[in-house]
Amino acid sequence: xxxxxxxxxxxxxxxxxxxxxxxxxxxxxxxxxxxxxxxxxxxxxxxxxxxxxxxxxxxxxxxxxxxxxxxxxxxxxxxxxxxxxxxxxxxxxxxxxxxxxxxxxxxxxxxxxxxxxxxxxxxxxxxxxxxxxxxxxxxxxxxxxxxxxxxxxxxxxxxxxxxxxxxxxxxxxxxxxxxxxxxxxxxxxxxxxxxxxxxxxxxxxxxxxxxxxxxxxxxxxxxxxxxxxxxxxxxxxxxxxxxxxxxxxxxxxxxxxxxxxxxxxxxx
Length: 268
Hints:
This protein has one domain (about 5-265). It has one helix and 22 strands. The protein has one helix at about 145-155; strands at about 5-15, 30-45, 45-50, 60-65, 70, 75, 80-85, 100, 110, 115-125, 130, 135-145, 155-160, 170, 180-185, 190, 195-200, 205, 210, 215, 225-235, 255-265. It starts with a strand and ends with a strand.
């Protein structure tokens, strides 16, 4: 009999935004002003979670970044190479678009193109557990009710990778997103050459992903945990990532993202 065990992670983001114009990538180098972040994890039967490798493992864990940060749109095809464009789509051929390296948001009041939160997973028992796969059961997002907020949030992306695995999972948890975007791989002017770009198809939030390269869940004792990196960003190549969808300066967008992890064990 197949057994599935879950762990849930939740990110609450409060963001205020401002801007004008119509092109993707927020023309005039506009950014999302993030007023506060909190990432909460809940581990259900069979799993325990911590926000640090040597932390306290329990059914819940949380991280918080409760101060102001500037998030510029970013773009990635592999969760390791990040690019940013300061120019919008000024013509159909993108001839005026160029890309620079993207950077993570790290410290208070810094600027960046993406945010990373880390979780560490272990089994709830004293023995290691054999797995068929380590799973991402779903990724969900709740956004505020204002129309501009809803439109911009379609460009929201959640990327997940487990340490030791070459697999990456990119989710678009808000419906209405651009299903497949063409992402440039390297710094420089826009290139239409096929080898210079990568087509990235985002997963809908209700799609389950199973990483079969991870076949053992460490014990709750001294075993090394499984490190899960969770990346949050606004995909600049999504057609919804445009300045017309930014909020007025006095408005605040509320975003709550939840990621549910799980395990699948072999049938008896």
